[in-house]
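Lecture notes, part 5. Sequence design as translation. It can be helpful to think of inverse folding as translation between two languages: the language of shapes and the language of residues. The source text, in structure tokens, appears below.
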């Protein structure tokens, strides 16, 4: 009797909300059908658009006029270490002027490749050393050395800046919960959802077209992971360690720097790995405002439709990304497992760090040899290779032999799926979207979330960007849907088979380290520019979280529950669908959330291949240096991501609470 009453009580709210949603959808349908009488509810009135873009442009103009001394000072200060890194890795040190100038060559490519091998060997053994050293040697032999070193120089300065800034911000947020709640977390959410292109516009306006602008944009974009890692790492330090440090008489500063932060080092190193990968991704995009390097090579090749050159530069980016990712992961793992021991009689430096000492010696010797032997200073052209003609020939062969099939697929997809969906989204009443999303927020988490979601959605309409916003939602939505349709079944299969997981894991690890540019190049080769290209590239970029979170969610179901299901007589199929899958659903939905955010980030970059959405607005604003237009479009994109993130997080929290 009690069970029946409980079931009926659970069913009543579901039935009530079902009625509410049916009425809400009916009301929106009525508004759409009566759009001739209620045009303001479907299309936001032009005369009511709030000129936020003009206000932002005026503010940026005032900053540029009145605070130019500050921007010049920042440029001068940051330019010193950046110029040193650029000269050390990519250019030459020049002392004096004219014919009497003395030139000290950059680090020898031979020495850098050897140092990369030694760094990998010290962090993870011979196999990792060969991988890291091989990646650098590949870059050299394929003629991409100077561009790759320009990119690496920017990363080598931006990453330490990110780590120091993020560490102090994370410590402050951990110590002050009010700061974490009201300042740091909202700022991090905004920083991680604003598209990469939108960072470039204010940097271009304030700091000019220079490597310093690119470095500042990269540092801002790549800082959030280390802030979050610092807060998470410090909060996870066992209370016993904290109590012991107080009993030992440590001051607050000693406890933080000598006890808590060393204890949180494994989590911090994971954050450092993420900072490196985000910095690499952003430096590639920042090539558009003076960074140069591999990203600029890809950009020029794509603009000129030189498929082979674009592919070679893209593969060099991949090699650099794999080397940095594997090296930072190995260092993080080593820091997590190392048992730090310092004896009272500390051995000499070269005994404690033999690999570092050897690397420095090799770099010095090979660089000095470069003064006398040109082959050490620069990669000889005689030993370099190029695969550009092969890539071009391959694309031509595919185009000639499979053009009809590819074109039929592209046209069918556009006519039967993309165009109808785009028309539906762009014609959806803005007032109805605000109302329905607010209702979803209220159902999931109450009035505060409803107000936040409704306000952020309304911002896209009142700034005159509703049509572009819905174009972005349509392309992001279909891409994320297809990514989940592919990724979730693969994740389920990986969770049920260890052998299949061993096959899938290296593939998704590789996809995760590829910079976003590299997904566009092969798709453009086959499908040219347009929405189909953007969708396919976005699906490939965003499918990883759907696979990873689904696999992890199924595997983290407690074994005791699975055993209980087996004891109760459940078949393996029943155990999977009635026990494992429901309990893993919150984790799977987190993967869907991350898939949507990654799809949104990639859609913006796909503005380079002809999409007509908010990404195009940012791209046009960047080309015209229109800060107001670009920043407002960037905020609209960020608000789409925040709305999706908040709703999915609220749904996941509710599901977890329901499942206990």
């Amino acid at each position: 009797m009690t069970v029946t009453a409980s079931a009926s009580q659970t069913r009543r709210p579901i039935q009530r909300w079902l009625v509410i949603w049916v009425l809400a959808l009916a009301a929106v349908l009525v508004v759409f059908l009566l759009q001739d009488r209620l045009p303001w509810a479907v299309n936001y009135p032009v005369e009511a658009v709030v000129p936020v873009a003009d206000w932002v442009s005026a503010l940026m103009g005032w900053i540029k006029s009145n605070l130019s001394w500050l921007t010049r000072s920042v440029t001068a200060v940051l330019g010193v270490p950046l110029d040193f890194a650029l000269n050390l890795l990519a250019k030459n040190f020049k002392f004096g002027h004219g014919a009497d100038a003395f030139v000290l060559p950059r680090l020898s490519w031979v020495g850098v490749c050897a140092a990369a091998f030694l760094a990998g060997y010290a962090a993870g053994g011979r196999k990792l050393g060969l991988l890291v050293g091989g990646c650098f040697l590949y870059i050299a032999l394929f003629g991409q050395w100077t561009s790759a070193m320009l990119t690496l120089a920017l990363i080598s300065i931006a990453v330490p800046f990110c780590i120091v800034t993020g560490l102090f911000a994370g410590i402050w947020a951990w110590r002050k919960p009010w700061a974490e709640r009201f300042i740091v977390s909202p700022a991090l959410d905004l920083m991680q959802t604003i598209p990469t292109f939108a960072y470039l516009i204010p940097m271009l306006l304030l700091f000019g077209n220079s490597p310093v602008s690119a470095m500042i944009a990269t540092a801002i974009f790549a800082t959030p992971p280390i802030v979050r890692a610092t807060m998470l790492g410090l909060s996870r330090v066992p209370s016993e360690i904290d109590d012991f440090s107080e009993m030992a008489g440590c001051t607050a500063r000693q406890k933080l720097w000598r006890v808590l932060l060393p204890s949180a080092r494994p989590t911090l190193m994971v954050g450092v790995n993420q900072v490196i990968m985000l910095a690499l991704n952003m430096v590639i995009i920042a090539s558009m405002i003076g960074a140069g390097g591999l990203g600029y090579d890809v950009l020029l090749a794509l603009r000129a439709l030189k498929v082979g050159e674009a592919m070679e530069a893209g593969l060099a980016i991949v090699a650099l990304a794999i080397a940095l990712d594997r090296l930072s992961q190995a260092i993080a793992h080593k820091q997590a497992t190392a048992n730090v021991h310092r004896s009272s009689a500390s051995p000499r430096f070269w005994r404690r760090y033999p690999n570092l000492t050897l690397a420095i010696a090799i770099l010095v010797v090979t660089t000095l040899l470069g003064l006398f032997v040109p082959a050490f200073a620069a990669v000889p052209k005689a030993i370099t290779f190029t695969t550009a003609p092969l890539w071009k020939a391959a694309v031509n062969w595919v185009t000639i032999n499979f053009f009809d099939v590819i074109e039929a697929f592209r046209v069918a997809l556009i006519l039967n799926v993309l165009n109808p969906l785009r028309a539906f989204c762009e014609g959806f009443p803005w007032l109805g979207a605000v109302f329905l999303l607010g209702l979803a927020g209220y159902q999931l988490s109450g009035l505060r979330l409803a107000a936040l979601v409704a306000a952020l959605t309304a911002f896209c309409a009142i700034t005159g960007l509703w049509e572009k916003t819905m174009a972005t939602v349509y392309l992001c939505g279909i891409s994320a849907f297809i990514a989940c349709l592919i990724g979730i079944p693969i994740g389920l299969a990986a969770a049920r088979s260890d052998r299949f997981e061993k096959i899938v894991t290296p593939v998704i690890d590789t996809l995760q380290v590829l910079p976003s540019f590299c997904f566009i190049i092969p798709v453009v080769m086959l499908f040219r520019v347009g929405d189909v290209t953007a969708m396919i590239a976005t699906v490939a970029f965003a499918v990883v979280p759907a696979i990873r979170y689904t696999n992890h969610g199924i595997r983290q179901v407690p074994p005791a529950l699975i055993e209980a299901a087996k004891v109760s007589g459940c078949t393996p199929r029943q155990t999977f669908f009635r026990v494992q899958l429901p309990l893993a659903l919150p984790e799977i939905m987190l993967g869907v959330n991350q898939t949507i955010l990654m799809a949104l980030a990639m859609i913006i970059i796909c503005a380079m291949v002809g999409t007509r959405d908010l990404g195009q607005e940012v791209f046009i604003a960047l080309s015209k240096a229109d800060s107001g237009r670009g920043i407002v479009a960037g905020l609209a994109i960020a608000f789409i991501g925040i709305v999706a993130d908040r709703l999915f997080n609220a749904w996941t929290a509710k599901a977890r609470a329901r499942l206990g």
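The translated text above is only one of many valid answers, since several sequences can fold into similar shapes. The first strand starts at residue 93 and ends at 95.
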